[in-house]
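haha ok so turns out i had the wrong file open the whole time. this is the CORRECT one, sorry everyone. sequence first:
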Amino acid sequence: MDRSTPDPVEAVDDVEVAAPEDPLDSVAYRLWRKAVRFGTWDPAAIDLAPDREHYARLDETRRAYLERFCAAFHNAEENVARLFCPWIMSVPPVWQQAFLGTQLVEEYKHTDFFVRYFDEVFGHRRFGTALANPVHETLAERGRRLLASLVEEDGDREMLLVEAVTHYQGIIEGVQATTGYHIFLDVFARKGLLPGLSEGFRNIQMDEGRHVSFGLSLLRHYAHRDPGYGRRIREMFEEYLPLIRVRYGQTMVVDGREYGPPPEERGVEKLMRFYTRRLADIFH
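then structure:
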């Protein structure tokens, strides 16, 4: 969905997967042009004053959930921003690298937004209270293996790239993060709450729609070219499903009392919808 002024978070999926036979350079160039045109939003330009008022009026458990929810997004954005360079280096120049270069900038921009949100709305930077997110724990090792493949002459380089894109653009962004946008929509945005965070999430959602579009297009290209790549993609989706399920339905302890997530979260239900959709994007 191409918009210069995004609406608040919506129940949409901004992902367009190319045909398996489309050259990846052409796919990357189209997404590069979209990133140049639509990826220039400024985290500092979003008005957060209404969010401070809404946050102050939330009950204690909703405030705690919101902080943990946003901390998980912050930590994920910052983590991948620091680790993403091997993904860029592992695809052919120029346009695939150019497009993934825009993704790196956008991951830092998303980090900037959440740091500002914590400073100006929550009044602290307690990122350590985040909801658990174990699927991110192996990204650093994934990046190290990609870097090593660039200097080693072996037959694993393409498979390592397929695995890395499956892990990040396919599963973390394509399934987990997309689920998060829809949780925020149901728990807060549909109630007219937190318009600044809603605008920020909608911008992030549009950025990551481009990231996921390229990642799924690459995976579809390789899966249709070689059944071995397709089997490995399916294996990784199955392997990581328990790790991405962990993030939803988590309990919180607030002032010594344990609380479940808001009933509107329905995280596993949303997660499985996007899990099934992403596999269909790749293999159909």
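The first strand starts at residue 252 and ends at 254.
again sry for the mixup
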